[in-house]
């Protein structure tokens, strides 16, 4: 699976519909302080199922919705879509019948999030597992936050193990086992 496109509408500072293309090779995002570079990475994490608003530098999940700036009024919803190339058919079986997967997360003020894959509504869990199995996702070690290297050095062995498990793509198995044990 390859990430090919990130579409944002009303997410944080991205009031208008915005698209980021991720073509083969390196994609760089440059711009002055406060222009929204970190917001883009947060959008990526959010659409993959991030459940912690703190990880979004927010004080509630509704804070990811564009809140207005200058003379532009705030919005009541935010939507992020991640487009994946699945030509190699590496997505989990239940979602693996299409060359292109469009994963969308939408939030309405005070109503929480809804997830869709190619237009069909799915659970947050399905999206989180899709990415966990692909060794990526909201907690992927490929997404390095500011300060994270320092945290890693100070981390306890169990926390470091969790990171290695994310990288190995087995954290999805762990959470399935946990779910099975609860039943
Ligand atoms: P730096 O180079 O300093 O790291 P950056 O390019 O990473 O900057 P971000 O942190 O992504 O910048 O963007 C911060 C901007 O996003 C701020 O101007 C902030 O006001 C704006 N912002 C954050 N959340 C919202 C929101 N919900 N609605 C409108 N604007 C928002
Ligand atoms: Mg930043």
Describe this structure in words.
This protein has 183 residues and is of the alpha+beta class. It has one domain: Rossmann fold, CATH 3.40.50. 28% of the residues lie in helices and 21% in strands. The chain contains five helices and six strands, in the order ββαββββαααα. The structure holds adenosine-5'-triphosphate and magnesium ion (MG). Adenosine-5'-triphosphate binds at residues 12-13, 31, 33-39, 63, 65-67, 69. Residues 37-38 line the site of magnesium ion (MG).
In short:
By secondary structure, the protein is α+β, with helices and mostly antiparallel strands.
Which secondary structure elements does this structure contain, and how are they paired or packed?
Blueprint: E1 2-9, E2 18-21, H1 37-47, E3 77-85, E4 100-108, E5 112-117, E6 120-122, H2 124-133, H3 148-154, H4 157-168, H5 171-182
Antiparallel strand pairs: 1-2, 1-3, 3-4, 4-5, 5-6
Bound molecules: adenosine-5'-triphosphate (ATP) and magnesium ion.
Shape: globular
Q: Give the full name of the CATH homologous superfamily.
A: P-loop containing nucleotide triphosphate hydrolases
Strand order of the largest sheet: 2-1-3-4-5-6
What fraction strand?
15-25%
Radius of gyration: 17 Å
Number of strands: 6
Key features?
183 residues; alpha+beta; Rossmann fold; 6-stranded antiparallel beta sheet; globular; binds adenosine-5'-triphosphate; binds magnesium ion; Chromosome partition protein Smc
